[in-house]
Amino acid sequence: MVRKPHKFDPANVAKLERPERQRFLPNERVVSLLDLTGSETVVDYGAGSGILSVPVARNLPEGVVHAVDESPEMVEHLKGRLDGSGLGNAYPRLVRDNGLDLAPESVDRVLAVNLLHEIIGETALQEMRRVLRPGGFLLVIDWRADVEREAGPPAEVSLTPEAGRKMLEGAGFDVAAVEGEPFPYHFAYLARKRVDERP
């Protein structure tokens, strides 16, 4: 199933950029969970405004980040932001029908923040799995349906941590929770390709 892309909304960009987000979902902590050495190829899937693509790129002096989004208007916004960052290793990309224009097993890390609840019933996870190299991983961080919060989507369209785990396992990943519950409103998982199901 392929969902119709969200329309570009400057108000949503402003929400992604609001300073209070850094209190409960700090960029520095998210980037640290990618465990980068500096030479990886990373996909920021559902990159939105690029709020994480830029700090990821800064941590990749010999690597690259592909900032992908389903909205052509958002990709144009991303292009402007990445061009203005002075970074030469961050590339905006349009994802069409959940397909990435990247070779199989060509990516070391995939980052998916606040995306899992948006792609229920779609093929995006299979595509993330397709491009991951053996030994690489997908970092999933998403809104929890089981905690009270004023930010984020309503609980009825969010996922519990267990539902998120099942969704990842169903897509062919072995899943481990990030230790220490690093975010108050989000669950965080490291997902690796199940060895017996490599493409």
Would you mind describing this structure in some detail?
It is a single chain. By secondary structure, this protein is of the alpha/beta class. It has one domain: Rossmann fold (3-Layer(aba) Sandwich), CATH 3.40.50.150. Helices cover 28% and strands 24% of the residues. The chain is built from 7 helices and 7 strands. The chain has a 7-stranded mixed sheet, with helices on both faces.
From the structure above, extract its key features:
199 residues, alpha/beta, Rossmann fold, 7-stranded mixed β-sheet
CATH topology: Rossmann fold
Question: Which structural category fits the helices and strands?
Answer: alpha/beta
Order of the strands making up the biggest sheet: 3-2-1-4-5-7-6
What is the number of strand segments? 7
Beta-strand fraction estimate:
15-25%
Helix content: 25-40%
Mean pLDDT: 90
Number of helices: 7
Q: Could you describe the largest sheet, including whether it forms a barrel?
A: 7 strands, mixed
Distance between the termini: 21 Å
**Element order: H for helix, E for strand:** HHHEHEHEEHEHEE
CATH superfamily: Vaccinia Virus protein VP39
**What is the highest CATH level, the class?**
Alpha Beta
Low-pLDDT segments, ≥5 res: none
